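hey can u run this one w/ FE2/S2 (inorganic) cluster bound, need the structure tokens asap thx
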Amino acid sequence: MSWHQVAQADDVPEDEGLCVKIDGHAIALFRVEGEIYAIDDLCSHAEASLAAGFVDGGLIECPLHQACFDIRTGKVMTGPATEDVRSYRVKIEGGAVLVER
Ligand code: FES
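ok here u go:
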């Protein structure tokens, strides 16, 4: 595991996701109440990008079948998905977003 710089903090919007890649692996960044969080971009149900979903408070709704995940933890809150998505530790250094993977 190591830290990877993936974006500038200012590039992460408040109301939508930002998809970034670490070694080809897609990770979705979100901002909730000023804090930045990182979870796997790929929905645990099928082939959909969570970064392209709909942010509702601290939840992200999958754009394909509307499963909801907790942005802070990756925990699935409503189906049809049944598995959590992975969440990653995030830190901000000098205005840059670093994700541990
Ligand atoms: S692909 Fe996300 S709920 Fe089906």
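DSSP finds no helices and eleven strands in the chain. anyway lmk if its weird
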